[in-house]
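Appendix B. Chain record.
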Amino acid sequence: MPERLEALKHWLETELSFREYTLKPASADASFRRYFRVAHGADSYLVMDAPPDKEDSRPFITVSRLFSDVGLHVPEVIDADLGQGYLLLTDLGSRPYLDALDENSVERLYGDALGALAGIQACSPAAGVLPDYDRGLLLREMELFREWLLGRHLRLSLSVAASTQLDAAFELLADSALSQPRVCVHRDYHSRNLMVTQRNNPGILDFQDAVTGPVTYDLVSLLRDCYIQWPRERVEGWALGYQELALQSGILREEHESPEQFLRWFDLMGIQRHLKAAGIFARLNHRDGKPGYLQDIPRTLGYVTEVAASYPELAGFGDFVESQVLAAC
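Structure tokens predicted for this chain:
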């Protein structure tokens, strides 16, 4: 989109009075947004390029203020032209968690991330500020798995029995999500959207899709990350450690003390999220020409089959994913 790049330079030069500066690609995400790093004198900024016919930047601004007000480390919106879809942001650096996580750093980095997650979940936005993560949205997300991975990518023709099995699994997963305490949900809280920073770690990105929803959603996004995997026993230990933190912080109440119930919520929320993610990865390939995410599908579906095997009511669904879907990816 060279015309957008030229318009962006014009905005920097005329509206923001940038004269001597350098502009380099910083990153692109799984949407239509692009990011550029701008060096201007001794200062470094990021510019978000979000075509207004494809992306609405207003939620980004709203959630940035919401998170900043509770002390979270998010990009500050310095200036914006919503008509053109350009935002000038503070720069949180270029080292994502994914590049920094290893056996020596994981406890410290996840400790920081879990502390920040408690801050997110302690937010009490006024009614209507964030959309509700309702049944319709939960089910539409899981339909991405059926439409884009099974249908478009694998060309699977489902029998009536298999389709019915999917419907039943989707409803069960939605029921579990809707039974959980409701909190502020980042919705993409994982290692590519958390930045290693010198102060107030982590820097938090890509929060514009935040909703009010299930308490375990962001937790499973972090601990059962589609891009990096840890042993199940370790993940469950971290999850239960966070449950204790949430109880101490008042995010959870006494009736939520059962570790078995919390892990069930966590497990089933993960299946819902990973079905959605696998569908999105297939869509990114076929619709958006981004095939790089296909390599993450086996890991993502591996979570589904591992967890489903522990729940009799999902065992048949897990067998279907393992034999018909994962084997074909």
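Further analysis of this model is presented in Appendix C.
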